[in-house]
Write a structure and sequence with these properties.
Structural class: mainly alpha
Strand content: under 5%
Shape: globular
Radius of gyration: 22 Å
Distance between the termini: 21 Å
Number of strands: 0
Oligomer: single chain
Low-confidence stretches: 1-5
Mean pLDDT: 87
Largest sheet: none
Order of helices and strands: HHHHHHHHHHHHHHHHHHH
Number of domains: 1
Number of helices: 19
Helix content: over 70%
């Protein structure tokens, strides 16, 4: 990876990014695909709402491990650092799996879903079944993201995409099989398919990284101090906290929406709307690892990477806007997603509100990528706290004081929160770039022979 940013061109960036983009794009298809099956199953409103809640709960448990891919790209240099981060990852996976098991204890689970969130009993029971099925999800996510980071660091991004193809194939076959030949609730089909798919992807990632691990175990990097668990924790805990806060906002949004005007309709359409927007956001999220891997030791690749990102943001916003403000929205929600006419009408305005969100996602991928590459991860956490607090404050105002429809309040809050985070991170990301360049210039002056 050391020379991957040398003589960067748009073509090199594109071909490095493309498999990662394809990976995220394929993952983003999961949501709309499963939502479409659930919408065509009996009791779609209850099942869609339960699927959205169960998925949100699984995401918050998964959150602390999701950034391990970035850590793997940035930290694994040789056999010692590989073993340290691997052990760290496996320990975290075990703890998160234990937490999932504790969460599904009936008394605790129904207290959270019925007493705190306020779900109807029918939805709460379906959510409980789905969450039990999703117990393997966090551990499998952490396992495969650690090994995918090794593939990215070694410029094997295509293999990451192959792993996602494995995941989608397993998920699709499972979903179709359960839908056609089984007599299951829609939420069960969705949860089971997700668990099977991500487990298969984790296994495929481990197989594809086998050769890289052999090479790493023969490598000793004497130019860097030995990596310790304390250093890993210092580097990673802001990233883990960032994901925890960022993904933890989903159950909180569910809580507010559950108390809002037209709550059940909002809970039913939100996963459909946000999963569709995620298709476009995913291409921006994939750019974070590109920034980390290609920006270069001297951060000389920043300008061209930034320009590429601007083009990407413009394309994504234009495409989503085309759906949000034309009859294509009806085609997507009614024909593809299988929503009823009333729910299709209900989903239009939330989609319009979120049409610019992909550009904000691209921007935050640039900002976080720069901060991870310069090992300045603390501002990322504070930026996420800013986003979280903005979303909470927005929901309190829109739901409790302005009495807005839940889905509308939630989508406005999502956009406002991300914009607040972008604004906060802007000076820190540019300062990190300038500071790095200043240190390199200073080192050259102190060591003219270098």
């Amino acid at each position: 990876m050391s020379d991957s940013s040398t003589q960067l061109t748009y073509k090199k960036i594109f071909y490095f990014w493309l498999p990662l983009a394809a990976t995220w794009l394929m993952m983003s298809v999961e949501g709309p695909y499963l939502a479409a099956l659930i919408a065509r199953s009996p009791e779609p409103k209850f099942n869609l709402a339960a699927y959205g809640v169960a998925y949100s709960l699984a995401l918050i448990i998964e959150a602390p491990i999701i950034m391990i891919m970035s850590a793997s790209v940035a930290l694994v240099r040789d056999e010692h650092s590989f073993k340290k981060l691997r052990n760290y990852t496996y320990t975290a996976n075990g703890l998160l799996t234990l937490l999932m098991i504790i969460l599904v204890i009936p008394n605790l689970f129904y207290f959270i879903t019925e007493d705190l969130i306020g779900l109807p009993a029918e939805v709460s029971q379906l959510t409980h079944i789905a969450t039990i099925i999703l117990i393997p999800w966090p551990g499998a996510i952490g396992y495969r993201r650690f090994y995918q980071g090794l593939l990215i660091r070694n410029n094997l991004t295509r293999r990451v995409a192959y792993g996602t193809i494995t995941r989608l194939s397993a998920m699709s076959l499972s979903a179709l099989g359960l839908y056609i030949w089984g007599d299951f609730d829609g939420v069960v089909i969705g949860a089971a398919s997700l668990s099977i798919g991500v487990t298969m992807e984790a296994a495929a990632s481990r197989i594809m990284v086998k050769g890289i691990i052999k090479k790493i175990k023969l490598t000793v990097d004497s130019t860097q101090p030995l990596l310790t668990y304390r250093e890993i924790s210092k580097f990673y805990y802001p990233l883990a906290l960032t994901s925890l806060i960022g993904l933890g906002v989903q159950p909180l949004v569910t809580f507010f929406v559950g108390q809002s005007k037209l709550a059940l309709e909002s809970l039913a359409v939100l996963p459909v709307v946000t999963s569709f927007v995620f298709v476009f956001r995913a291409l921006g999220l994939s750019y974070q690892e590109v920034m980390i891997a290609l920006i270069g030791e001297k951060k000389e690749g920043f300008n061209i990477l930034f320009n590429f990102a601007l083009i990407l943001a413009g394309i994504l916003v234009s495409l989503l806007g085309l759906f949000a403000f034309t009859p294509l929205a009806d085609f997507w929600f009614k024909t593809v997603s299988g929503l009823s006419i009333s729910l299709t009408d209900f989903a239009r305005l939330p989609l319009m509100i979120m049409f610019f969100f992909p550009a904000l996602t691209v921007l935050i991928s640039i900002q976080r990528g720069v901060l991870v590459a310069t090992k300045n991860t603390k501002p990322i956490t504070i930026g996420t706290v800013t986003e979280f607090l903005t979303i909470v404050l927005s929901l309190i105002i829109f739901v409790h004081y302005m009495n807005l429809v839940g889905a509308v309040a939630a989508t406005i809050a999502f956009v406002a929160g991300r914009l607040a985070s972008n604004i906060y991170l802007t000076p820190f990301s540019f300062h990190s770039i300038n500071e790095r360049k200043r240190k390199i210039s200073s080192n050259k002056e102190d060591n003219p022979r270098h």
